[in-house]
């Protein structure tokens, strides 16, 4: 089979794989903004592979030696490649939970660079900046390499910046996803090196498909391990993490069980939508507080209105963190102008030789938490009397 036909078939095969991923994403109908951006990314990569395969076939089978056609195909290809990479950059930017102002400015910068790139490629036949066909209809490369420096340069710079941000600012689950999304340009660079080593090789189709597959697998893992309402670790990933830590036999491991007091009253009086809002505020505030104090700390939703925090420190330090969480939740209630106060009951336990698994550690903290809850209710009744 000739090279152009082989490249076309490989691209079409990869389109089928990406098409399946896109269909699964559409069926799932996840309306979180980052997942909408992921669907857009997959769509643009499907378009890219179609353009790449058809362009190779036309250039090498139909319009051989026609410089004008080559320039037109390259222009379409590089504009589409730019849009595919832009879609990845936008998806990555929304996935790492940047502060609103920083995210907006980053998106503007990405769009500005993308617009300049599109303009240069759309006008290159007239400006001769990148590539063109001369008066003798011979293809000339011009400063062809500039766009590759831009395309790979911006990916690697953004990846490095977001890796650093994820390492210092995000939770364990968020860091894992950020690292997976950041593997995209790394996969492309590896396959680009392979192409230069082995010669004519459809690196664009294979590398893009593998990169998207890696991200999709990470997305599925997130669906399994992340609580969809609060965007923190769910119960199954929490048990897995705690047991893994216990098996590592750390010097210190403490667990804080947290319960929202009178949460049922919030649902009954203000409705379940307001109850969901309260859960999101509590989860978001706790996540920020835990990360500020223990970057490697773990936060998960145990179920309903109960949460768990795990840190590698002793019970005394866990108690200090618990009070900081309590204070931050009180402040969040005021800052969000809630019509009700959010108060917490907590129980703290530390790993010891008598606790051999995650379930026992959680049970010990749960018992402590309910003791404190009963004690608080008793004090409130006494105060009323």
TrEMBL record:
The entry's keywords? Membrane, Transmembrane, Transmembrane helix
The yes or no answer to whether the keyword Heme is present is: no
Q: InterPro entries under this entry?
A: Diguanylate_Cyclase, GGDEF_dom, Nucleotide_cyclase, Rev_trsase/Diguanyl_cyclase
Per its record, what are the GO molecular function terms?
diguanylate cyclase activity
Membrane-spanning parts: 6-26, 38-55, 67-89, 109-132, 144-165, 177-195, 201-220
Pfam families per the record?
GGDEF
Q: Which residues form the GGDEF domain?
A: 251-385
Q: Where is the signal peptide?
A: none
Q: Does the UniProt entry include the keyword Ubl conjugation?
A: no
Question: What SMART domains would the database entry show?
Answer: GGDEF
Tell me the NCBIfam families matching this sequence: GGDEF
PANTHER family the UniProt entry points to:
DIGUANYLATE CYCLASE DGCM-RELATED, REGULATORY COMPONENTS OF SENSORY TRANSDUCTION SYSTEM
According to UniProt, the name of this protein is GGDEF domain-containing protein
Q: What is the lineage of its organism?
A: Bacteria, Bacillati, Bacillota, Clostridia, Peptostreptococcales
């Amino acid at each position: 089979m000739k090279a152009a036909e082989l490249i076309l078939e490989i691209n079409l095969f990869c389109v089928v794989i990406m098409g399946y991923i896109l269909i699964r994403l559409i069926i799932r109908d996840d309306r979180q903004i980052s997942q909408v951006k992921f669907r857009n990314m997959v769509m643009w990569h499907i378009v890219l592979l179609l353009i790449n395969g058809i362009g190779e076939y036309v250039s090498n089978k139909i319009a051989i030696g026609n410089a004008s056609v080559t320039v037109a195909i390259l222009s379409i290809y590089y504009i589409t490649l730019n849009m595919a990479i832009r879609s990845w950059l936008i998806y990555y930017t929304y996935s790492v939970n940047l502060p609103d102002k920083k995210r907006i400015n980053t998106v503007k910068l990405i769009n500005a660079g993308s617009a300049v790139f599109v303009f240069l490629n759309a006008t290159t036949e007239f400006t001769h900046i990148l590539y063109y066909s001369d008066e003798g209809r011979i293809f000339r490369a011009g400063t062809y390499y500039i766009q590759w420096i831009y395309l790979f340069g911006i990916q690697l710079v953004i990846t490095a910046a977001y890796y650093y941000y994820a390492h210092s600012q995000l939770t364990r689950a968020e860091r894992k996803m950020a690292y997976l999304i950041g593997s995209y340009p790394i996969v492309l660079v590896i396959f680009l090196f392979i192409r230069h080593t082995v010669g004519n090789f459809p690196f664009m189709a294979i590398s893009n498909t593998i990169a998207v597959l890696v991200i999709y697998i990470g997305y599925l893992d997130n669906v399994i391990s992340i609580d969809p309402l609060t965007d923190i670790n769910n119960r199954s990933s929490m048990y897995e993490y705690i047991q893994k830590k216990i098996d590592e036999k750390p010097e210190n491991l403490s667990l804080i069980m947290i319960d929202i007091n009178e949460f049922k009253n919030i649902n009954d009086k203000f409705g379940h939508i307001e109850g969901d809002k309260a859960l999101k505020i509590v989860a978001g505030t706790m996540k920020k507080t835990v990360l500020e104090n223990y970057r490697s700390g773990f936060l998960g939703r145990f179920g309903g209105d109960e949460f768990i925090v795990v840190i590698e420190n002793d019970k005394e330090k866990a108690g200090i963190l618990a009070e900081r969480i309590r204070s931050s939740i009180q402040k969040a209630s005021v800052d969000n102008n809630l019509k009700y106060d959010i108060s917490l009951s907590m129980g703290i336990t530390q790993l010891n030789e008598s606790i051999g698994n995650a379930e026992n550690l959680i049970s010990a903290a749960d018992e402590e938490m309910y003791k404190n809850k009963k004690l608080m209710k008793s004090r409130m009744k006494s105060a009323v009397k």
